Amino acid sequence: MKLEGRIAIVTGAARGIGYACARRFAEEGAKVVLADIDGDTLRSAVDSLVAEGFEAVAQTADVSRYSDLQTLVDAAVAQFGRLDIMVNNAGIARTQDFMTISEEDYDAVLGVNLRGAFFGLQIAARAMIAAGNGGVIINMSSINSRMANPSVATYAISKGGLNQVTSTAAVALIPHGIRVVGIGPGTIATDMLNMGFLTNEAQRKMILSRTPSGRLGEAEEVAAVAAFLASDDASYIVGQTIFVDGGRMI
Ligand code: NAI
């Protein structure tokens, strides 16, 4: 098991990619703290892991709130003694007409996807430095971090910024033995696709025609890469965002 005894937090873990990451980490031997703003779905997700014998706890948190992130990291350390892996996965998207993007939309999307990940990283890194064992921080980016798509402009801007958080923080934190890396999923079959990415047959055809693999990705395929990146097998991968996209970006 690649992650035996490691302590991991995954945000946005009530469903989708975050849940798949938490489950895969647990299967690899980690003790996992699942965090999400949707407390009810989160609790049933954690209950199902615990029922299968995994060590998992739930912490309701809104990652756009600094105090929630601090409470989340404090809770993980209080429960398990330290923190080894942080996955800043929670994300939202809003479709917008570029010229009428509102301040509210802009702040909401960047508040979760960029601000939430930045402070999640910073607070987690402080706990890792205090424990002195290093760690791994994974930021969940997107192919949209590199593609210009005005209909999801705020989402694309937030993920582009997140890639820069990953590389900048990687340089700042590697002296402490903390590896910061990113994952850029392509179109993965989760609830997020309803947020404007895949809402009709024409969009599906367009996406599949531009995806060499000819299919959508599964959350478990992203989680497998997260488990690899979180493990010592990826010990020399620092600051990169790895695309898991069926070939979409090539
Ligand atoms: P999802 O919509 O299925 O799950 C996202 C989870 O994040 C939900 O459980 C939601 O309640 C939670 N969340 C939303 N706002 C939150 C907040 N403020 N605080 C805490 N939790 C919050 O989405 P999915 O697909 O699992 O996405 C996970 C990550 O992967 C996101 O960062 C997304 O941008 C990224 N991604 C997803 C892709 C896809 O095709 N599904 C493609 C590229 C990136």
Automatic annotation (TrEMBL):
<keyword id="KW-0560">Oxidoreductase</keyword>
<dbReference type="InterPro" id="IPR002347">
    <property type="entry name" value="SDR_fam"/>
</dbReference>
<dbReference type="InterPro" id="IPR036291">
    <property type="entry name" value="NAD(P)-bd_dom_sf"/>
</dbReference>
<comment type="similarity">
    <text>Belongs to the short-chain dehydrogenases/reductases (SDR) family.</text>
</comment>
<dbReference type="Pfam" id="PF13561">
    <property type="entry name" value="adh_short_C2"/>
</dbReference>
<protein>
    <submittedName>
        <fullName>SDR family oxidoreductase</fullName>
    </submittedName>
</protein>
<dbReference type="InterPro" id="IPR020904">
    <property type="entry name" value="Sc_DH/Rdtase_CS"/>
</dbReference>
